[in-house]
Amino acid sequence: MLGASNGSLHPAAGVTAEAPGSGYGGDATAIAVHCLEDMKAEETVVIDLVGKTSIADTMIVTSGRSHRHVGAIAEKVVEALKTAGYGPVRVEGTTTCDWVLIDAGDIIVHVFRPEVRGFYNLEKMWGADRPNERAAPGTPSDEREEASVNKRAHG
Questions:
Q1: Looking at the DSSP assignment, which residues form a beta bridge with residue 99?
Q2: Distance between CA 148 and CA 89 in Å, rounded?
Q3: Local structure of residue 17 (DSSP, 8 states)
C-alpha cells in the first residue's frame, strides 16, 4: 500500500518534480518513494507528520523481504538522497538490517523486515491506520491524541 494525506495516507503520485542529476523526483519524499519502488519495497506507507510532531514533516514506513533486501533498500535511498543534496543523511540499524532508520531531516524512512514491522506497528502509533479520524480544527495535537485514546477506550 502506497499513500498518505493530512495525518494519514496519501498517494505518492503528486511527488514528481525532477531533482537535477538524481533521476528521481525533486523533493526528499519523492526521491525516497521512487527508490522504494525501484527496489521492490513492500507495503510502503507515507505518513504526513505536519502538526503532529516537530521531528520531521514526513515519515515513510516500508518493508523488505529479508535482511539483505532491507539493507539494499536503505543503501539505495541513502545514496539517492545524498546525490540529490539532502545531507547529512543519518542511518541506524545497518548492522542487523532488521529495522533501518534513515533520517534526512524533513523526512524519516523506516525500512523493516515484515516481522519487525508488525511488532512495532508505527503506522498505528502515528495514526495512519485511522485515515478517516480527524480532530476538530484548532485542536492541539496533544489534545487530539488524548481525545482519540479516550474515544477508543470508551467506545
A1: 112
A2: 34
A3: P
29-71 pLDDT, tens digit each: 999 999 999 999 999 999 988 888 889 999 999 999 999 999 9
Q: Are 57 and 47 in contact (CB under 8 A)?
A: no
The upper half-sphere exposure of residue 130, i.e. CA atoms within 13 Å in the direction of its Cβ, equals: 14
Pairing of strands 42-48, 90-92: unpaired
Strands (E), 9-78: 42-48, 58-63
Q: Of 57, 32, 52, 37, which is closest to residue 110 (Cα–Cα)?
A: 32
* Domains, the chain: 12-153 (3.30.460.10)
Cα–Cα distance measured from residue 15 to residue 63, given in angstroms and rounded to the nearest whole number: 21
Q: What pTM was estimated for this model as a whole? A: 0.69
Which among 48, 45, 49, 99 has a CA at the least distance from the CA of 69?
Answer: 99
Distance CA 24, CA 19 (A): 6
